[in-house]
Amino acid sequence: SHILKKDQxxxxxxxxxxxxxxxxxxxxxxxxPAFGGPPIPVGVNGQxxxxxxxxxxxxxxxxxxxxxxxxxxxxxxxPSTNNESRTFDSRLVKMIWVPDVFFVxxxxxxxxxxxxxxxxxxxxxxxxxxxxxxVTVTAKCxxxxxxxxxxxxTCSLELESYAYTDEDxxxxxxxxxxxxxxxxxxxxxxxxxxxxxxxxxxxxxxxTGWYNRLYINFTLRRHIFFFLLQTYFPAILMVMxxxxxxxxxxxxxxxxxxxxxxTVLTMSTIITGVNASxxxxxxxxxxxxxxxxxxxxxxxxxxxxxxxxxxxxxQERKERKLREK
Length: 325
Prior knowledge:
Methane Monooxygenase Hydroxylase, Chain G, domain 1; 28% helix; four-stranded antiparallel beta sheet; alpha+beta; eight-stranded mixed beta sheet; Acetylcholine Binding Protein, Chain: A
């Protein structure tokens, strides 16, 4: 009988070892490229994926963005006949030198890790490197509420090297004003995003020196319609309702007193509700002026009835005395 032999599985039979593409074992990557020489230029660009949250109480914002770094490290160069780049994941990032960029004034930040670390490293044959990550950061934003709710806020996300001064690392926007891209679908419930733009300057620390700092600036303008429905219209109605007591007979004491107290308490509730959603600032906001003026009108309507009741009581007393005489 003819015995059929199975073909040998080539994947199991291959026992050779491919030649290592990057000679990372031959160099000390604890030192930056061109250590001891001129500063290494590191270009930065990014794409804002979303603005997740703007908090007036905490005075901060949360942003998710793709952050990309560009630099040249000749220690990572490799021979190539077609001049094509090679792409690696986060495992190689832990073995080579990467810029130590951090977010200034950030409260918390993290690199997304589902389903794996959202990190990409692309190396070109001449040693140029592209390092990209997807990160979410919560940073503080100093807000001015003096014109609230007709205010506009400008917030900044600041990037800077933690260890390397401008003598070792030159951080810059790779494409100038075109270095920052935004998703067209970015929207917020209470704000209209007017514009994004980038700036840069030097930051000085007395103990360590000068550092290059990059800024992602964005301007927000608040939508007024929500506050018209929740604050301004109710306040207008309460003031008008307090005027109804002027047409109620002054002898109907329970009706006028209950109406006046109800409008006063309602205005107090509106003021408390607005201030509960705002930080405890030491200056007066525009909405405070409007609400307190409305509160004064409502309160004066209660005082008006008290004054009318008192004056009419005095007048009736005088008339009674005249009749008795």
